[in-house]
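fyi for ur records
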Amino acid sequence: MEKNKKFTIEQAIDEIQKYLLNRLHREREIYLTIQKPPKPSVLAWFDTRDNQLYITDNLAQWSVELLYVLPLHEEIHKVCFGIIEDYANGYHNVSFRKLFETMSGMTTYHDEQVGWQFIEKVGDKYIEWLKEKRHILNEIFDIIDKTDLPPQEKEEGEEGEEGENGDGENGANSDGENSENKARSKMNKALEQNQDSDNSQSEKGEEGEKGEEGDKSQSETKGAKSEYQGQRENVEVKGGKKKFKL
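which gave:
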């Protein structure tokens, strides 16, 4: 990609769709198509009519977390469709929770209105995915950064809901924190902080082994690691919408 190349929205979507988007979940054979959403608040959805997964063509709403969570979320609905009841009238039941947590490595918490959907802890699988896909994600956000995006209209109080095409998920970071530059910097910061934490825990383990009570150093190290919360969780809900916070 040329360093100073500028993109129209159509060119950016074409570039991302052809060369980058589906490399993120290829090992799981999850493939997305970029398309105009059935409703402005929907970011990703499973279309029961053609059995396909889609993601919004509003690139300004894309975030690192969206590109990890929503393909997995919608894939669960696709896998369950017609076989297991996992979702009804906006409510995600325990069947959805179990499958999503297994596939994503994340943990969810219960909300009275939407059930087991909101993320409580992102987990190690997410961090490992970031490490592996970092270069692809950076390429995607580089393109978005060089794209002439249309101005964004804020829609207050809108919930993600099931559209006429099937299940849909609403946006994260409704307060505007998910711009492409911030998304990329947050991803890189999360990786750096988690690397620092891993190094710190490793050093503590080595010091414990050298101590007089070496036999209990391992348990102490495990305890210290379990206490670290850091970037692997702290997801907030704001205004009834998911807000991922690295």
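The radius of gyration is 20 Å. thats all i got for now
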